[in-house]
Amino acid sequence: MSQTDDFASLPLSPALLQGVAALGYERMTPIQAQGLPTLLQGRDLIAQAPTGSGKTAAFGLGLLHKLDPADGRTQGLVLCPTRELADQVGRQLRKLAFAIPNLKVSVLCGGMPLGPQLASLEHAPHVVVGTPGRLQELVRKQALRLDAVSVLVLDEADRMLDMGFEEPIRELVGKTPRKRQTLLFSATFPDAIRTLAAKMMREPAEVTVEGAADQPAVEQHFYEVEPDRKTPLLAALLLEFRPDSCVVFCNMRRDTEEVVGSLNHYGFAALALHGDMEQRDRDEVLVRFANRSCNVLVASDVAARGLDVQDLAAVVNYELPTDPDVYIHRIGRTGRAGRGGVALSLCSPREIARAQPIEERQGRPLRWERAAPLAGRASNVPTAPMTTLRIDAGRTDKLRPGDVLGALTGDAGLKADQVGKIDVFPTRSYVAVARAQAPQALARLREGKIKGRKFRVHKL
Ligand code: AMP
Q1: What's the whole-model pTM score?
Q2: With contact defined as beta carbons under 8 Å apart, do 296 and 246 qualify?
Q3: How far is the CA of 16 from the centre of ligand 1 (A)?
């Protein structure tokens, strides 16, 4: 296969080349250079390509290339193992397709309310990205039709099988036309994947690329912004990316308080964490972030060391660190275990020089993008799913997590899945309860007794 890594060598429409340029991609990654020429001819493709290889743009361009926007039926279907991945894929497809007028991409995943998804399908999207279980449900309800699908993508097929999605995948594939293009991406190729591929693909081309081993599987975005526009831009980005959990790193302590003030003003559930706080207050903030009562933590580097959340959905650099290793360390807190993560960096003109060593350290160009700071008030601000109750008793009172759980599910009448993480400290305990149940839980804990004793309880 003769290869060039210039996107212009591909038979892509000017609109898609504009999409590529808008994303800041200058050269093709190996999976793109090896896969796209074959893929654009309409052949099936099996690719062994890990997250971080640029696989999304590879299948995304293949899929968008084949679509007919004038045809109002669903022509592209992308199956993903998780909501996070589906969201990322959806975002990238929309960006690649921004210059194609009236193209609709819908992301449909489990764990989200069904009603709005059913409503969104009244007009069929051109492209559907989603998790197999939910898509199966929507197809069974006849809300989603797959009989015009011309490109089917299985993204991270190995993980989908690990998660037990084989049966819904088979059912969904069975609803698509036999004459279609099928693209399968997987980091590993166990026999189960080979069998699946043999059943649903026709003479696929095969491509293997090595993962950029030392590069984190993190989508990195850089934005140049005037210092006084940073918080409105941060708010706009949080509304766009909607991470379930996010740490905003500040270089200076006083920035953490200021940023939290602005974010709270916009309606976000944000908390500050820095070294000047009392240990007890720091513990409390860490507890509330880890138990999902707060989805944005604004922290200094040192204070964030206490954070034992393994897998942040996003990391923000409110300011670029002067040391590139600090940057790598910060963004390494997202995208763990091969899951995609997002790193957003806000960079004022006088910080631009700090980007150079970061670029050199990673050995590839950084992507600079444009985004509009939020103007006016925020709407549709993501809320945290849980609320924390603090009980003024702990290990020294012989309180154990089971006692708290028992009091809530017994007398207070909560279901076990409405009670989240329980942390017991020497003299205090914290329990996360589903937001909607918090008033009920608080009232009952105050009236009732835990282990036959009455303790003070507060809602944080
Ligand atoms: P993926 O493997 O699809 O998760 O992509 C990993 C990251 O690489 C994403 O942040 C992409 O936006 C980015 N990316 C994909 N293709 C290119 C390219 N040709 N040049 C630069 N970055 C890219």
Answers
A1: 0.57
A2: yes
A3: 15
